[in-house]
Write a structure and sequence with these properties.
Elements (H helix, E strand, L loop, with lengths): L1 H10 L18 E4 L2 E3 L19 E4 L4 E4 L5 H11 L7 E5 L5 H4 L2 H7 L4 E4 L1 H22 L14 E2 L5 E4 L2 E8 L7 E6 L4 E5 L15 H14 L3 E4 L8 H22 L4 H11 L9 H17 L2
Parallel strand pairs: 4-5, 5-6, 6-7, 11-12
Antiparallel strand pairs: 1-2, 2-3, 3-4, 8-9, 9-10, 10-11
Length: about 300
């Protein structure tokens, strides 16, 4: 009878403690600057192995509370972020910025609101629009499919506050300035500059030593966003994926796109096809062969670059 009673009690436990799939495995938070922390997730696509967690959730501790940037890919990932955040401060989360519509960055919103229901979630107006029009369901299903159902139970908590280009949010004595675009990585992108500390959260407009998936964006927009990021001359850049650092990895990112686009344009003018271009470009970019997702995204980038050139 004791076992039956115990099972009955467990059946009525809160969903926040729902079972073995409740939280992704823990990843440590790194203090990258005064009051600023980042969990550098593993690089790659969502999978059973990484439990869908592969972005860089970050937070800034202000005088009034905590500002979170991109709390992860699922409620399970978000709960891990909450647990790591609570090791760094007892202050509540007051605001969340979502950098773009791709679900690996924002489906963790649910976990933030579980812990701090009054938190304000901020995003690009086009991200909010697209999420309301079905991108939320698309990303929830994609994460579930790619993780064998690990992320099931995730609910889309869409941002409720729009952020405009150049807008400044004054939060707890810190200024968060928005640099937005409609033609970069996802066409719904924010870069968030923490003005006083000269820290830039780039979202996926800039990755650190990872070949970008550009199926939803444009080369022209990403290259423009990269130039904009470099012009800000931040002390620290926090990318959407890969390690944070100074402007060196941003400059590497720029060189990649400069080489790829110039070579595609040259060979396109010569009448070459994408499969003829690939070995030439791979050789030109051989210094980057150890970048994450080289095999996955190099070929598609070349094909997408051709399409973009044809639309000029």
């Amino acid at each position: 009878m004791r076992i039956v009673s115990l099972l009955a009690a467990l059946a009525f436990c809160t969903p926040v403690l729902a079972g073995p799939k409740d939280v992704v495995r823990p990843y440590p938070a790194q203090k990258v600057h005064a009051d600023t922390y980042v969990i550098h997730g593993p690089q790659g696509v969502p999978s059973v192995a990484n439990q869908s967690f592969m972005n860089n959730p970050a937070w800034v501790i202000t005088a009034d509370g905590v500002v979170v940037i991109d709390p992860g890919s699922s409620v399970q990932a978000g709960r891990m972020v909450v647990a790591q955040l609570r090791k760094t401060t007892k202050k509540p989360v007051t605001h969340v910025f979502n950098t773009h519509v791709h679900g690996d960055h924002w489906l963790g919103n649910q976990a933030i609101l579980e812990a701090w229901p009054k938190a304000t979630i901020i995003g690009h107006p086009d991200m909010i629009k697209r999420a309301r029009e079905g991108a939320d369901a698309f990303w929830i299903k994609l994460m579930s499919d790619m993780t064998g159902g690990f992320t099931d139970g995730t609910r889309a908590e869409i941002p409720t506050v729009e952020a405009a280009d150049g807008q400044e949010f004054k939060i707890g004595g810190k200024t968060f300035r928005i640099h937005s675009s409609t033609d970069a990585h996802s066409k719904t992108d924010l870069m968030i500059e923490m003005v006083e500390d000269r820290v830039l959260f780039t979202g996926d407009n800039i990755l650190s030593r990872q070949v970008m998936n550009l199926r939803d964006g444009t080369f022209k927009g990403v290259m423009k966003a990269t130039d904009r990021a470099l012009a800000l001359n931040a002390r620290l850049y926090v990318p959407g994926h890969g390690k944070s650092g100074d402007r060196k990895f941003v400059e590497e990112h720029k060189v990649w796109f400069d080489i790829l686009m110039s070579e595609v344009r040259r060979m396109y003018d010569e009448g070459k096809s994408d499969f003829e271009m690939k070995p030439v470009i791979a050789d030109k970019l051989k210094a980057y062969r150890n970048w994450a997702e080289w095999e996955v995204n190099l070929g598609p980038q070349i094909s997408l670059a051709i399409l973009e050139i044809e639309q000029e």
